[in-house]
Amino acid sequence: MTLIENLRAEARAAPESGIVAVMNRGRDRDGMIPLWAGEGDLPTPAFITDAAARALAGGETFYTWQKGIPELRQALARYYVRHFGKSFAEQEFIVTGSGMHAIQLALDAVAGKGDEVVYLSPAWPNFAAAAGVAGAVPVAVTLDQSGNGWSCDIGKIEAAITPRTKALFVNSPSNPTGWIADSETLQAILDLARERGLWIIADEIYSLFHYGDSRAPSFIDIMADEDRILFVNSFSKNWSMTGWRVGWIKVHPCLQQVFENLVQYSTSGVAQFMQRGAVVALDEGDAFIVEQVERARAARDLVCGILAATGRARFTVPQGAFYLFFAVDGITDSRAAAFDIVERANVGLAPGTAFGPGGEAFLRLCFHRRLDQLEEAAHRLAKWMKGV
């Protein structure tokens, strides 16, 4: 037996990220416009970094609360009052080492070897991969796509549920499609979860990146206190903190100790000086979020206009998140297309193959960047489309 054959089968089967594969092909190219990753191009604003720097200089470098410092959990409670109109106790929040860590802990809590977790696809690939590493079986239910946009067929979710199903994973607004579950869809999913005794893992990281009202509909709007819902979230998108790796889970207060234990046996907590920055992000960052959303809206409209004018690109204008998920007439292998675009257009996109069933013919473009760069990228893509 080789060394690799002695590893757990689940570890050996963990897939290479289809997004990272394209990034590795093009990241060192001169003049590359990188629109492949799910992040904006603004650094973390100074009012956040200054708070973290003060804490670091002040010696806040020791072990701290596994579940997060009280000040941060209190700030999270205030955030939900402002943006969701609901009051939650600080005991309902657990600070995690990124949104990805929050998802891993949620999976650790509700699904294990042989269990099934149903998710809506196309989807950010990390959830399905993390479920597989945990020993669970990810079951994709594809969103429907038509001239009217993306939609969710509740009957398809119901048909995917088996006696082994433990949880439903719902990401709305969606990465990569920009689909938003309306209140009726969320209620139908919640009713189904209640009926079948399932957990819901709700990824609402893009709630405030919504191009309609101030935020997208949320399970928080319709849930009862005892519903089996775990909310996973992150500081990455709202406050340009992708590299900080700080997130949170909102849980029922009776689950606090369980999740504190899970933090203890995974990361043992988030650095205290980073949490100080996160407190300031929550309490002082609302105006920054508004600016980011308006910036992304303008970028979305610019890119959609240029690509629509080619007559080759097919897409639904996204109503949430900050991605354009588009297909090109005549292109069926988006992975090959993404590599070709790197080589011939010097633009980095994520291939739809990376996002699971339903995404194969699409490409994902992150438009959360400055307008001049996006305009150049869109024109390069338009030129590439003329040549294929």
UniProtKB/TrEMBL annotation:
The keyword Transferase applies. Keywords: Aminotransferase, Pyridoxal phosphate, Transferase. Signal peptide: none annotated. Residues 33-381 form the Aminotransferase class I/classII large domain. It catalyses: L-aspartate + 2-oxoglutarate = oxaloacetate + L-glutamate. CDD domains: AAT_like. This is Aminotransferase. The lineage of its organism: Bacteria, Pseudomonadati, Pseudomonadota, Alphaproteobacteria, Hyphomicrobiales.
